[in-house]
Write a structure and sequence with these properties.
Elements lengths: L9 H14 L13 E6 L4 E5 L12 H11 L5 E7 L10 H8 L7 E5 L5 E5 H4 L12
Parallel strand pairs: 3-4
Antiparallel strand pairs: 1-2, 1-3, 4-5
Bound molecules: 2'-deoxyuridine and zinc ion (ZN).
């Protein structure tokens, strides 16, 4: 059987993971003390990072994934190759439901999400696996 092609190169994954893990340091999480870092690789080859930013009004806080995607989109990026998310726990955390929908807006079902645990090991899942039967721009005819 032919090997499944990796969606990104080993070198890209090395940079992506290093940046996501480093981004944990930028987290503002005085309430949960749960640091999350994220990094996106754009189709144009740029890396955009994010971290969770909490708020005294707890529900107002934002996850690392949405900070990263929002930052990338306002910088003009609309096309993305991969996302890495890093936490300090084991097994690795996966994006919350709100983030899955947020990410889905800018990705398709084969988009890979690499999830790193606190020891630097990862699991990878596609957006189609994380959010099956999703609702997206196409459902509005966009
Ligand atoms: O995938 C995740 C899961 C949680 N968080 C944040 C939200 C909150 O600040 C803290 C605890 O839930 O972690 C993320 O940023 N990404
Ligand atoms: Zn989230």
């Amino acid at each position: 059987m032919a090997p499944i092609d990796s969606p990104i190169t080993a070198q890209e994954l090395e940079i992506l993971s290093t940046k996501a893990i480093a981004a944990k340091e930028a987290a503002y999480c005085p309430y949960s003390k749960f640091r999350v870092g994220a990094c996106i690789l754009t189709t144009s080859g740029e890396f955009v990072v994010g971290a969770n930013v909490e708020n005294a009004a707890y529900p107002v806080g934002t996850c690392a994934e949405r900070v990263a995607f929002g930052t990338a989109v306002v910088a003009g990026h609309k096309s993305f190759k991969a996302l890495a998310v890093a936490t300090d726990i084991k097994p690795a955390a996966s994006p919350c439901g709100m983030c899955r929908q947020y990410i889905r807006e800018f990705t398709n079902g084969s988009f890979p999400v690499y999830m790193y645990d606190g020891e630097g090991s990862y699991k990878v899942m596609t957006m189609g696996e994380l959010l099956p039967d999703s609702f997206g721009p196409g459902d509005l005819g966009i």
